[in-house]
Write a structure and sequence with these properties.
Blueprint (H helix, E strand, L loop, with lengths): L11 E6 L3 H13 L1 H5 L3 E7 L3 E3 L4 H6 L8 E3 H4 L4 E11 L4 E6 L5 E4 L2 E4 L3 E3 L7 H4 E2 L4 H18 L5 H7 L1 E5 L3 H17 L12 E5 L11 H13 L3 E3 L4 E3 L4 E4 L4 E3 L2 E4 L3 E3 L16 E2 L12 E3 L4 E2 L15 H19 L13 E5 L5 E5 L2 E4 L1 H14 L3 H16 L15 H6 L2
Parallel strand pairs: 1-2, 1-8, 2-5, 8-20, 10-17, 11-12, 11-17, 12-13, 19-21
Antiparallel strand pairs: 3-4, 5-6, 6-7, 9-18, 14-15, 15-16, 22-23, 23-24
Amino acid sequence: MAITTAAAAGRTRILIVGGGYVGMYTALRLQRKLRSEIRAKKVEIIVVDPRSYMTYQPFLPEAAAGSVEPRHVVVPLRRVLKHCEILTGRVLSLDHDRRIARMQPTRGEAYDLSYEVVVVAPGSIARTLPIPGLAEIGIGFKQVEEAIALRNLVLDKLDIATSIIDHAARRKLLTFVFVGGGYSGIEAMAELEDMTMYATRYYPDLSKGDIRFVLIEATGRILPEVGEDMGRYTVDQLVKRKIDVRLNTRLESCVDGHVVLSDGDEFDTETLVWTAGVRANPMLARTGLPLDEKGRVRCRPDLRVEGVEGAWSAGDGAAVPDMTAGRGATTGPSAQHAVRQAKVLADNIVLVLNSRTPKTYVHKYVGSVASLGLYKGVAQVYGFKLRGFPAWFMHRTYHVSRMPTLNRKVRVIVDWTLALFFPREIVSLGTLQRARDEFSEASR
């Protein structure tokens, strides 16, 4: 099965692989810049992604902690990209010489999809290691469904722990392990620990001392983006909250929840969150495009794929030269770069379609902000360092300003405002994932 070629239809088809930061923002800007061409059916924009929404990942920790409604941290692609065609599925491979993409829909047979211009932005996936037991008990923290599941999982463990008398089993239930000391791991753990400690007031049989949070980091520091001194400050704050921080420590095994660490310690857990970095999407190896040693697409400074016409890339899966750094440096995998690259990429596609010269992407990294729970945070922006409430306030202010669409900005702000007047919700809805269990039992 093959979709009719755009050339035969007398129009330029722009295929965008991925609906994340780069994919959505590129499509959004293109539909604005090419509005008249789209209406005249001279240009067609197609976005392919396994999900029909874009996830604003910086708010995932707050969604997991219940500070923000999970539905408010995702942006429906069809609502925002009204003049684009959204296909739910995956691009399996590209034959760029023939301008053909192999498309696998969520259901049904794969088919060929033709294009004239392609934007390759499938994003990144979790960088895992062959650790025994990890695939069986580990959970990631990149998508909203993982944030929801983790929140339900933690609260569910509290519910179960209050009803059992086996102390070893109870200890295992109430031990929560996070592997990775980057932004995802620190923010997720800090927000969930904050929520869990708050929840103990509703569990008279549990005390804060019964609950154990463990952070495992293979290097000697955490949050390298905010500087070494702010990283040390963060460790001090986590230790004051009775969080067990293990630096220079590796996870050796976690078979059946039995954790074995490189420092010789062993203990049991039922919850292990893996946030130890990301890597380029392996789909890129099937595009035929030039890749670097990390599996990322090699790009020119104007975001065109190196040595290839009609192909563009940006974001986590692209090796984009950093024009503000030394020779050979590339931009880091951050939302800050991805959003800005997407805008330049869309503008450059329009320039090339009009036979004009594309512009170079130049952006100096301004710094980073991180939340450590309610009213707590660290930040380093333009060389200025903040901690505590000011950093937390800057974190919220910055990210709500970057949240796509006014609709989502308002919803997030309303969530925060309501939280000032009403207590946190601490209900586990984990049974939603087993919605048919009771009916199936009754039908036997």
